[in-house]
């Protein structure tokens, strides 16, 4: 019913924090040296845009005036109009208002869970087809800027070309197995954020973009992209009243995952400051520290690192999900034998998060 749609949208809106003040300057988000500034977009040709349309999945949204299948089947007829929309947006730094509304559909986080419990639902934003083409144009140029200036976090495997869950798995397991071979025990901390896509501050995100060299028209474009957005919940034929989006980036958008990665860039500087190994997959972060047993007490640097990470999250608004954050001990049977029973989980194997999809055992 419409009331259910309105209740669900209200529940999702509560997750978004109310930013009553600006975040203090982040000492970990210092601009890199010798950076090339991204001051203007390259305006793509018609063939480039046509190629993006042909390669895109026909994800028609109820907000589309025409079916995406029809757009893909008649590119030559519609291409001049689509190019005009995209070119104008890139020249002016303004995102069309028609592209700023999202229809939220809900998917169960776990099959078989109770669909009437809103906590079990994952909202995915359906966006107009042409808006996604515009986002792909911008995302490709943003990726080129990040790559050419070596701005990507080296140990980030999420939503990057030539990176995947496999690269994250290989890096983490290789480091843990090498530590185990040398007789060490590793303390693995799996950080989990609560609704990271919904809780990032637009003000902080714009500041983060400026620190990596986004300026002038591109920066204005991102300000326009984030501002004056609305969303509504669609359940079958029922629709909620629209509500403004004042924080976060949209799950289901093209740019959302890339903006999350940029937002979390300062975390890598904190881990390096304390010489803590880490690897990220989008907003999921694994920290690990290897030490000799008898007993494997966390080092002062690890504890200091965790304190600073918690402080960083507090000032940058994403919240750690304590109930899903895990601490595990990893090592061989012989190295784990002398470990006190309450040091951590002392099982000689561990089940990594579902994204890694592997078992590592002794």
Automatic annotation (TrEMBL):
| Keyword Membrane found | yes
Q: Where is the signal peptide?
A: none
Q: Which CDD domains match?
A: RT_nLTR_like (cd01650)
Query: Per its UniProt entry, which superkingdom is the organism in?
Result: Eukaryota
Does the entry feature the keyword Cytoplasm, yes or no? no
SUPFAM superfamilies found in the cross-reference section: DNA/RNA polymerases
Query: What residues does the Reverse transcriptase domain cover?
Result: 88-362
Which keywords are on file for this protein? Membrane, Transmembrane, Transmembrane helix
Where are the bilayer-spanning segments?
A: 245-265
Q: Which Pfam families match?
A: RVT_1
Name of the featured protein: Reverse transcriptase domain-containing protein
Biological source species? Nothobranchius furzeri
């Amino acid at each position: 019913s419409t009331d259910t749609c309105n209740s669900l949208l209200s529940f999702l809106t509560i997750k978004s924090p109310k930013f009553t003040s600006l975040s203090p300057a982040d000492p970990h988000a210092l601009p890199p040296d010798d950076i090339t500034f991204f001051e203007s977009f390259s305006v793509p040709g018609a063939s480039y845009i046509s190629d993006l349309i042909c390669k895109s999945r026909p994800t028609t949204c109820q907000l589309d005036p025409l079916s995406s299948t029809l757009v893909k089947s008649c590119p030559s007829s519609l291409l001049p109009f689509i190019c005009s929309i995209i070119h104008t947006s890139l020249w002016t730094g303004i995102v069309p208002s028609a592209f700023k509304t999202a229809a939220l559909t809900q998917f169960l986080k776990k099959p078989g869970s109770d669909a009437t419990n809103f906590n079990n639902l994952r909202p995915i934003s359906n966006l107009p087809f042409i808006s996604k083409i515009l986002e792909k144009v911008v995302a490709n140029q943003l990726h080129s800027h990040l790559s050419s200036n070596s701005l990507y976090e080296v140990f980030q495997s999420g939503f990057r070309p030539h990176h995947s869950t496999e690269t994250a798995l290989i890096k983490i397991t290789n480091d843990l197995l090498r530590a185990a071979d040398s007789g060490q025990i590793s303390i693995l901390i799996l950080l989990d954020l609560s609704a990271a896509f919904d809780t990032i501050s637009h003000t902080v995100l714009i500041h983060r973009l400026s620190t990596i060299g986004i300026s002038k028209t591109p920066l204005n474009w991102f300000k326009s992209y984030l501002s004056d957005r609305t969303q509504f919940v669609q359940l079958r034929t029922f629709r909620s009243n629209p509500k403004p989006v004042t924080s976060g980036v949209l799950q289901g958008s093209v740019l959302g995952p890339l903006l999350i990665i940029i937002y979390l860039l300062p975390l890598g500087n904190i881990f390096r400051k304390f010489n803590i190994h880490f690897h990220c997959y989008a907003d999921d972060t694994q920290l690990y520290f290897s030490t000799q047993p008898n007993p494997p007490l966390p080092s002062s640097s690890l504890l200091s690192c965790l304190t600073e990470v918690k402080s960083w999250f507090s000032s940058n608004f994403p919240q750690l999900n304590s109930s899903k954050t895990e601490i595990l001990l990893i090592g061989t049977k012989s190295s784990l034998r002398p470990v006190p029973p309450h040091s951590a989980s002392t099982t000689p194997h561990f089940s990594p998060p579902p994204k890694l999809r592997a078992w590592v055992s002794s």
